[in-house]
Amino acid sequence: RLHLVTWNVGTASPPPDVTSLLQLNSLDPTMDMYVIGLQEVNSRITNFLSDLAFDDPWSIFFMTVLSPLGYIKLSSVRMQGLLLLVFVKHVHLPFIRDIHTHYTRTGLYGYWGNKGGVTIRMSLYGHTICFMNCHLPAHIENTEQRLDDFEKILEMQFEGENIPSTLDHDVLFWFGDLNFRIADYGIHFVRESINNKRYNLLWEKDQLNMAKKKEAFLQEFIEGPLQFKPTYKFDLYSDVYDTSEKKRKPAWTDRILWRVKNLCQHASKEDEFSAEEQTISVTLNNYISHMSYGISDHKPVTGTFGLELKPLLSDPLVMLNPEGEWSAEHDVLISYSAVPEFPSSAWDWIGLFKVAFRHVNDYVTYAWVEDDEISSNKDRKQVYMSAAEIPDMGGEFLLCYYSNNFQSIVGISQPFQIQPNRTLMEKDLTQEENSWMQKPDNLESHDEF
Q: Which of the 8 DSSP states describes residue 126?
């Protein structure tokens, strides 16, 4: 289950609550993956430079919300105001590989990144998936420029061997502030149609729908029905369309589309093709806007999808476990085994993480698999971790094996308990009691008052 968000946040700070945006109170099963595409994240030069060195406020905000629920930030990519984040449940980490990011500038003839696309691709259970967050040129008259820019973004190539081009991925999600407008109709007809919830009257003049009928490269993209109000342009903190002097005509600027490669290939063949041959299918369960969010002049749009995969990968590359009872009082052992074809590296490491860790660098401590190895045979290897590195308070943790060759976590343990350092805790308790005993009793001096 995949939940995809697109939102032009208009340089605003994160809102107080995103429960409904992320459907965290839904009665349905929890999501396996969140993909969040933002546009117009505050990109003043000072902000942008500091965000390069540290996580930006939006990334920190979503990590704070999602990490306690068992999601880690798998990857992110930022280009000025464009930000793309992917969060995933722990259980899927060993089956996600070959993660690469890319960005394409299209603003100011390709020299400026205020417009363009940011992309994250990966192999998910052996299937190639690509997510593309775009911010295309504004204004009703720039349809051709939008299409040209999108074609340019599609043509970009990921760096690395054997990585397919964008359109060669099994599934490609395309979303963002695509800036397509409603042509021909005047503002009064558009607003009247919206007030009467007769959105279908506007669909045929939506510039993206019109382009999909003409442009061959767009015809393979699928979109759910636009059964929600156009998401642009609103007065801030309201559900009232633009009352400024410009009085922008409402439009569905914020969109989510997808393309399944094998459907495109088979659709071009004359012979029928059975669903059994299909190794991956995408089902749209929900395509809605969220009117309650008013921090920008755009309303966020979400798409909830079911991805049905016939796994091409069913076993993790590495299985690992803590040995015996772990305590902060003594050195501990980790045992692991790898599949025969696993290409290990001297730079591989095993990290100790709190269960609610935020991203791959959020480890408490780590051990190098070669430098800290103490025994090895063809079935199993052992690595030690020093007691000095283990948190004295103990708690619930898990282990992750990070592969330098794959640049990702390829094995993850079940959560386990680390016992606290009792000696240190008793010492702290004794010191606390002693300091309490030594405190001067000032009560007597206050009796006369």
A: T
CB 364 within 8 A of CB 397: yes
Cβ burial, residue 426 (10 Å; 0-12/13-18/19+): exposed
DSSP letters of 62-85? HHHHHGGGTEEEEEEEEETTEEEE
- Spatial distance between the Cα atoms of 315 and 146, rounded to a whole number of angstroms: 43
- The confidence band for 6, taking pLDDT boundaries of 50, 70 and 90, is very high
Question: E strands within 166-213?
Answer: 171-177
Query: How many Cβ atoms are within 10 Å of 396's Cβ, its own excluded?
Result: 11
Q: At what angle do helices 143-155 and 207-214 cross, to 10 degrees?
A: 60
Query: What is the chain's length?
Result: 449
> E strands along 82-240, which residues?
82-89, 96-107, 112-124, 127-135, 171-177, 222-223
Segments in 286-385 forming alpha helices (H): none
**CB under 8 Å, gap of 24 or more: what pairs does 358-367 form?**
358/63, 358/67, 358/72, 358/73, 359/63, 359/72, 359/73, 359/74, 360/72, 360/400, 360/402, 360/408, 360/409, 362/72, 363/400, 364/389, 364/390, 364/391, 364/397, 365/389, 365/390, 367/334
| Bridge partners for 384 per DSSP | 333
Q: Which of 125, 119, 42, 48 is nearest to 86 (CA)?
A: 119
pLDDT in tens, 368-389: 999 999 989 888 999 999 999 9
Mean residue pLDDT of the chain comes to 88
pLDDT (tens digit, 9 = 90+) per residue, 158-168? Answer: 877 789 999 99
CB atoms within 10 A of CB 302: 22
Q: CB of 39 within 8 A of CB of 82?
A: yes
CA distance 194 to 186: 13
Of 48, 163, 149, the C-alpha closest to 100 is 163
- Mean pLDDT on 193-215: 96
Q: Are 2 and 32 in contact (CB under 8 A)?
A: yes
Tell me the Ramachandran region of residue 110: left when phi exceeds 0, alpha when psi lies from -120 to 50, beta otherwise: left
Q: Report pTM.
A: 0.89
How far apart CA 122 and CA 144 sit, in angstroms, is 30
